[in-house]
Design a protein that fits this description.
The protein is mainly alpha-helical. It has two domains: 1-35; 37-231, no CATH class. 72% of the residues lie in helices and 3% in strands. The chain is built from eleven helices and two strands; from the N terminus they run H-H-H-H-H-H-E-E-H-H-H-H-H. A two-stranded antiparallel sheet has the order 1-2. Helix 2 packs across helix 9 (183-200), helix 3 (70-94) packs antiparallel against helix 4 and helix 6 (135-141) crosses helix 7 (160-171). The protein starts with a helix and ends in an 11-residue tail after the last helix.
């Protein structure tokens, strides 16, 4: 094969590569425009949340993790998780999964008694596994579409459906709406609910910083995939081709 022929084929291959890359880029741009039409605003809110985390939430979480031993933090996690099992049971009922709801109630009763107000997760050792449901997932099971991707101040990644679900979750949250705590006590308790899981994610957060080329896109795509998996209990159907 002559040098001219080789050069010709190399040129054709290079042209095809450029065209395929351009087509893929156009398809990716169209996909993002569909799922994230408010990207400019979302990125601004994402940046705000990152700044708030870097200068306020993360330093407090680091101090919290330094002061409190792991077994205490685990007890705090278990306590709030136990209270949440009641709402999880309600969502399982609304999703038509009564056996899961019964398991959730069983967990709550066992951990509230034998587990000393939920500080110890005895139920898992008894075979009552933790379910994770919320009203956003319930709406998804009912057929409500995700809607556009959104980033909420302080709450982070969401979408139109899950934002409605979040409002319902907040309105039905015992620790936010109980009359047994005054406003300062509610602030302290719910501040603990934010700081405790953030302390558990300190190492994972650093891994994300090191791994993600575009952290915003990484978080967005991960959130969309995770929520789709949760709505379909880990078995999402294939996404139809457009």
């Amino acid at each position: 094969m002559s040098n001219q022929t080789k050069s010709f084929f190399k040129g054709v291959l290079l042209l095809l590569t450029v065209l395929l890359t351009a087509c893929a880029s156009i398809q990716q741009t169209e996909r993002v425009a569909k799922i994230d039409p408010f990207e400019r605003v979302n990125r601004a809110v994402f940046s705000f949340n990152e700044t708030a985390d870097e200068y306020v939430i993360k330093p407090v979480a680091e101090a919290y993790k330094f002061v409190l031993p792991e077994f205490v933090r685990t007890g705090v996690t278990n306590f709030f998780s136990n209270i949440n099992d009641v709402l999880i049971a309600a969502n399982n009922l609304l999703q038509g999964k009564p056996s899961n709801a019964a398991s959730d109630i069983g967990r709550f009763l066992v951990n509230s008694t034998i587990g000393i107000l939920g500080l110890f997760d005895v139920a898992t050792d008894m075979g009552l596994d933790k379910n994770r449901e919320d009203f956003g997932q319930t709406l998804g099971v009912w057929g409500v579409a995700d809607g556009p991707y959104m980033v909420l101040p302080f709450f982070g990644a969401s979408n139109a459906r899950d934002t409605v679900g979040l409002v319902v979750d907040i309105e039905t949250d015992f620790m936010l709406n109980t009359n047994k705590l005054d406003s300062d006590e509610k602030l302290a308790v719910n501040g603990l609910r934010v700081i405790n899981p953030r302390a558990d994610l300190l190492d994972a957060g650093q891994l994300l910083e090191d791994a993600a080329f575009d952290k915003y896109s990484f978080v967005r795509d991960g959130y969309i995939q995770r929520r789709r998996s949760q709505v379909y209990d880990g078995e999402p159907p294939p996404i139809p081709e457009e």
